[in-house]
């Protein structure tokens, strides 16, 4: 694999979305331990990509949202 590329395992995007957005967490939505492990790996790899490439990949925060986080 060329330098700088991160291999992200194949995972159904809907599974990841359900797991990350459901208020009760991942456990109710994972069909198996292997799927739960894949979700965890995918989330960790996404965070690693953000850390390696910096936060410049994230959308800019609005001034209003920034003021709300400071209060």
UniProtKB/TrEMBL annotation:
It comes from the Eukaryota. Residues 16-52 form the RNase III domain. InterPro entries: RNase_III_dom, RNase_III_sf. PROSITE patterns: RNASE_3_2. One of its GO terms (molecular function) is ribonuclease III activity. GO terms for biological process: RNA processing. This is RNase III domain-containing protein. It comes from Vanrija pseudolonga.
């Amino acid at each position: 694999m060329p330098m700088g590329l991160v291999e992200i395992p194949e995972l159904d995007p809907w599974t990841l979305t359900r797991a990350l957005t459901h208020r009760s967490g991942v456990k109710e939505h994972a069909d198996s331990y292997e799927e739960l492990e894949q979700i965890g790996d995918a989330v960790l790899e996404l965070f690693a990509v953000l850390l390696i490439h910096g936060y410049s990949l994230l959308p800019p925060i609005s001034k209003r949202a920034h003021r709300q986080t400071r209060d």
